Structures are given as C-alpha cells and as structure tokens.
Amino acid sequence: MALTSTPPNSAPPKTTGLFSAVVVVAALGYFVDIYDLILFSIVRVESLTDLGVRGAALTSQGLYLINMQMWGMLLGGILWGVLGDKRGRLSVLFGSILLYSLANIANGFVQSIDQYAWLRLIAGVGLAGELGAGITLVAESLPKEKRGYGTMIVATVGVSGAMLAYWVGEALGWRNAYFVGGGLGLALLLLRVGVFESGMFEQAKQHGVDRGNFFALFTNGPRLLKYLKCLLIGVPLWFVVGILITLAPEFGRALGVQGEVSAGLAVFWCYFGLVFGDFASGALSQLLRSRKRALQLFLLMCGTVVAAYLFLQRGASPEGFYRMCFVLGISVGFWALFVTVAAEQFGTNLRATVATTAPNFARGSVVALVPIFQATAAALGSAQAPDLIASGAVVGGVSLLIAFWAISTLPETHGKDLDYVEVS
Q1: Across the chain, which distance is largest between two alpha carbons, in Å?
Q2: Does position 228 have pLDDT exceeding 70, yes or no?
Q3: Taking every annotated instance into account, which residue ranges of this chain make up the domain Major facilitator superfamily (MFS) profile (predicted)?
Q4: Angle between helices 89-107 and 174-188 (to 10 degrees)
Q5: Which of 251 and 1 is assigned the larger pLDDT?
Q6: What angle do CA 226, 124, 93 make, to 5 degrees?
Q7: 52 occurs within a structural domain
Q8: Does residue 287 lie within any of the structural domains?
C-alpha cells in the first residue's frame, strides 16, 4: 500500500504571489502551447489543399496528422514528466517550449504529407511538456488556499491562444501562422529570467528522494487506479475538441447546416468558450471549496450541451452552429482544473510525472477515440454513409459517464498540503 511522508528535517517551502513571474510565465507558455496545438485544426483544410490533398482525403489525411501529433504527445508526456521530477520543473517548462517552437517553424516549410506528419510528431513531443510543468510549478509555488486561482489564471490566459491562432491563420496564411507560433515560443524563452524552481522540488532533491520513477505508478494497485482515474477525467474534453470540433465541417453537413461550416471558426468559437469555462471552473472550485463538485457540475453540463450539438441543430445556420460551438467550449472548460486535480493527488517526487502524463494521455486518447468513432459510425450507418451523429452520441456518452465515475471516486484535494513524497 502506498504511504506518504514529508522529507525529514525540512523547512516549509517558500510560496509566492498570485501574479508572480511563475504564474505569468506558465500562463504565457500555455498560451503559446495552445496556439501551436490547435493551429493544425484551424489550417487543416487550407494546408492540406495547398499540398495537393482533395476530397475525402482531407478528412482521412487530417486525422492521420492529428494522430501523429497525438502520438508525439503520448511519448513526450512520459519523457517530460520523468524529467520534470528528476531534473526540475523549470528545465521541462523551457525545454519543451524550445522543441515545439523549432518544430513549428520547420512546419512552415513542409512540401509533403510525410514531412508534415513527422514534424507534427516532433511538435507533439514538445507540446507535451509545457502544461504539466507549468501547473506543477504554480501549484507548488502558491499558498494552498490560492492554488485554484493560480491555475485558473494559467488556463484562462492559455486557451485564448487558439483565438490568436485563428486570426493569424486567416490573416497571414498557414505557413506564416506556423512561423509566428514558433517565434512566439522563442520570444517566451527570454522571460525565464526571474523564474525560480519549486521549493518543494528542491527539498526533495536535497534529501535524495527517488524522483520521476514512472513505473512506480504501476507497481502499486491503489496508486495505479488513482492514476487511471486522473487520466479518464480529461477524455471527454478531447472527444469534444478532437472529434466534434475538428470535424465540424463534416458534422455540419451531416446535420444539414444551411451553409458551409469553417473548421477554423468552429475552433475559434469553441476556444473562446473555453476561456470563460476555465475561468468559471477554477473560480467555482474555490467558491465550493471542492474540486470534485466543480468537475461533476461541468461534466453534467458537457453531457447536456453535447446532446444539444448532436440533436438540436438540424437545418441550423452556420452562425447558430458556431454559437453552439461556443457553448460547447464553455462546457469543457475544466482542462486546467483536471490537471490541477491530477497534480494534487500525488507526492512531490511523482507530481510532475503525473501532471504531465495525465493531460497528454487524455489528449492522446484521440488516437483511440478516432478509430472507435469511425468504426461505430460505420456500424450504425454504413461504410459509404457513416452515421456521425449516432456515433458521436455513443462515444461521447460513454466517455462522459466514465469520467463522472472517475472524479466521483477520487479523494478531494482542495486545500491539500502538497509538501510530501510518495513512498511504498
């Protein structure tokens, strides 16, 4: 059975203010992270068309490139998570920014689908590290009473990066949009001056605590179950973003929307909603003094809005469809709250590993969700005319029910003291 203990003879770690350099850098890092993460969904049709892809291949090749990016994030989640606990939160925060910035600059030069795919894989590895390292650093640096507000700021600023990605993509074209994203990341590295390492991590390091042992998550039954529950909470968000929003043009046609639906605008309005949702979920968890109740309420709201998206938009106008994307974004605005809960469930020596792998495995669930969604659509319709609506209802409903069970059976972490380590 897993036990926890505070490192012996350790002074309480120093805490910092709500608008300190740590919070600002983590928020801006997540802003650039989201810009680069979502940019492909925004420029998918334009970039693939420019590379010679036409017709139904726009969907299949688009899903292939999304999967490559997600595989990179799965690999990067493990890599950066372990490094975050072994080498420190700051090294991961800035190392990941450097990698995905360079990869995205290179993305602006691609001339073939294969080049595009491998660079999305590399970018995915880089994108995997920023959020987990940033949330861990903020959670360990702020007083426990303010942690929720700190991660709320990180999320609210961060998700607005998707809106900038849309504006830049529309104004400058897809290649220049990748150049801008890479340039923003490199500029962000200049802000590392004045950002200090987590005091909790430094204490664990000084006491020679075994850190970043990824396999320790699998050698203890209760610890493994708790970790798996953390992963499952974030799956519905990536069902919404990775399928319902990324494939918005296809869903628009299936729903008989009276006009062509733009994938870029769907992403824009969804992430505009996420800004409000992340602010609301973070504030709600503080007001209720409960992470669990806030997440439960948002999952219930998400289920209601997904049903409305799938069944109440027959013959809608494109403007009405985008309004629904906005509301859908609000309903899944619990991303940073989910990562915060994952970070708060584990000790300092495994916290970065969990906080980095959990969101990336949740993001990476798209790799499994996409073929499940496609197979279900074909089974409920046909290979020639897949039923996207019914498949969305089944896959989305199951993922939401599992996530609700997961958060309902995890311990409450609001106000929890994080200055402890995991031992076995």
Answers
A1: 68
A2: yes
A3: 22-414
A4: 160
A5: 251
A6: 70
A7: yes
A8: yes
Structure tokens at 209: 């605590």
CA neighbor of 245 nearest in space, from 359, 126, 330? 330
Distance CA 213, CA 230 (A): 18
Asked if 270 and 329 touch (Cβ cutoff 8 Å), the reply is yes
Between CA 400 and CA 383 the distance in angstroms is: 26
Nearest to 418 by CA among 356, 358, 353, 348: 348
d(CA 186, CA 184): 6
| Residue 76 amino acid letter | G
Q: What is the domain-level CATH number for residue 257?
A: 1.20.1250.20
**Which amino acid is it at 142?**
L
Residue 3 lies in a domain: no
Token pair belonging to 139: 């959670």
d(CA 112, CA 314): 37
Greatest mean pLDDT range, 141-155, 167-181, 292-306:
292-306
Number of domains the chain is built from: 1
pTM of the model: 0.82
388 inside domain: yes
Which of 16, 27, 181, 163 minimizes the C-alpha distance to 93? 27
Contacts of 190 (CB under 8 A, 6+ apart): none
23 is in which domain, residue-wise? Answer: 15-208+215-423
User: Is residue 361 a contact partner of residue 77, using CB atoms and an 8 Å limit?
Assistant: yes
The Cα 403–Cα 229 span in angstroms is 8
pLDDT tens digits for range 314-325: 999 999 999 999
Closest CA to 90 of 129, 64, 145: 129
Amino acid residing at 189: L
Task: Identify the bridge partners of residue 5 per DSSP, sorted by sequence position.
Answer: 421
Give the separation between CA 164 and CA 398, rounded to whole angstroms. Answer: 33
Model confidence band, residue 6 (pLDDT cutoffs 50, 70, 90)? very low
